[in-house]
Design goal:
- The chain has 192 residues and is an all-alpha fold.
- The chain has helices at 23-30, 35-57, 61-77, 87-115, 124-139, 143-154, 159-166, 170-187; strands at 2-3, 9-10.
- Strands 1-2 form a two-stranded antiparallel sheet.
Length: 192
């Protein structure tokens, strides 16, 4: 407090720091790209989000760490759309959506490997070697076959939807996909 000329007391207001903010206030500050607020929100909730993701994802530590990081990046990007409620629950919702998306991507990857010659059953080291050569094998395909393979086997589009995207009949899509899979199998050393 300080005194004025006539002896009146005037209160000095100290500026609020991010530590003084509620979780909801931190999210609002995150929407303005406040680095201190983002760091504090991360510090407050990283352990609980990590536990949540680990329980949903299993033992793949690299995937867990990536998913936790993506959870906070997504939260920071969408902070302006936060409509109130429990911030922890909001973060868990973001994490759950990312884990589901990650699981679908893994299923598509394994399905694509299996479709390309039963390579998913290969050992880890040979699986990694095959994965390293896969982009090159796909790039070597003619454009029409590559489009079909990527849409169906890697992106998980259903046949009718993929055919509509490409503007071709479903039968044409399946023929292109058949030839693409054969070419990739040959390129990776599998049976045609």
């Amino acid at each position: 407090m300080t005194t004025r000329a006539r002896g009146e007391l005037v209160r000095l207001h100290r500026k609020a720091t991010p530590e003084d903010l509620t979780d909801e206030g931190l999210v609002a500050a995150c929407a303005t790209a406040d680095r201190a607020a983002r760091a504090l929100l991360f510090e407050r909730h990283v352990d609980s989000v990590h536990r949540f993701v680990a329980r949903m994802r299993g033992s793949d530590e690299h995937a867990i760490d990536d998913l936790v990081q993506m959870t906070f990046v997504t939260a920071f990007q969408s902070a302006a759309t936060f409509r109130g409620g429990a911030v922890r629950s909001w973060l868990f919702g973001i994490a759950a959506n990312l884990v589901r998306k990650y699981a679908r991507t893994e299923i598509r990857r394994k399905t694509a490997l299996k479709a390309m010659g039963g390579l998913a059953e290969a050992s880890t080291s040979s699986d990694a070697a095959v994965l390293a050569r896969l982009p090159e094998a796909i790039a070597a395909l003619p454009l029409e076959q590559r489009e079909a393979l990527v849409l169906v086997d890697l992106e998980g589009e259903q046949g009718d939807a993929a055919a509509a995207i490409l503007g071709i009949p479903a039968g044409t899509l399946w023929r292109r996909l058949f030839h693409a899979r054969q070419a990739v199998r040959r390129s990776l050393g599998g049976e045609p």
